[in-house]
Amino acid sequence: MMKRIVWNDSLSIGIDAVDGQHQTWIARYNNVVAAIGSGGSTAPVVSTLDFLVDYTELHFATEEGFMRESGYPDLEAHKAKHEELRRAVADLGDDFGEEGSTYALGEAVETLLGNWLIDHIQSTDQFFGAYVSEKGIVLTLPAGEEGAS
What we know:
The protein is built from 4 helices and no strands. It is an all-alpha fold. Helix 2 runs antiparallel to helix 3.
């Protein structure tokens, strides 16, 4: 049985726009978990994986933009980690297209997306949050660009 991710304070990096996007990402990840676990229609899996591909791009653009704006020194290393997940999400979509909603796909979603996301937020993103907090930088998205679900 795949594990759902429950948002808690350990996942907050202290930048409201980024935390909000992480919450949306987690909610959609949980939708994939539920859809794969139900063994029913594959439509929810397809739509949610498609959403995650698009949302991953939006979210990474937001984070990387904030990093550029704040002069974050580890931007390039952070971008490289983002690129790893871009490839992983694309591969999951390809696997689903070839094999459908299998147990192996569920395991891959949990490992690649679930574990990667938690590890990334609790380490790499936390470093950025700490940097912004230490420098007293306030980062907000322009109105209408919250990255709504």
